[in-house]
Amino acid sequence: MSATVARAESFAARFGLRLPVLMAPMAGASPVAFAAAVSDAGGMGALGALLLEPPAIADWAAAYRRGGRARPLQINLWIPDPPPARDAAHEFRQLGIVDRRRIAVQQFPLVIAAPRARERERVLQFA
Length: 127
Prior knowledge:
Order of helices and strands: HHEHEHEEH
Distance between the termini: 59 Å
Shape: elongated
Strand content: 5-15%
Helix content: 25-40%
Strand order of the largest sheet: 1-2
Structural class: mainly alpha
Largest sheet: 2 strands, parallel
Number of strands: 4
């Protein structure tokens, strides 16, 4: 038996699945009936809960359990990382800015559309 098959069988046994099949928990594409069908066939049903409020998640889980399903299910609560801290001066250096007044880049032009000189100067201070 290959290590991959052994790992899949171990996972299935750990969660009481007859088959190592997991439904993809995609937001907006995980109706209770579909998750129940996957579970009833021996796999693990899922809910992609990204777009749902907590009461809707609870309602979905209750509807799933009402069908008599006691097997595990997965709920994907994807939470994005916070936006990264930006350092404009560092980004300009990484792009290879050659002339801070022209904002010319070695391989392609970086266009900054600033209608007023003061706004343009504010952008250029980071170059």
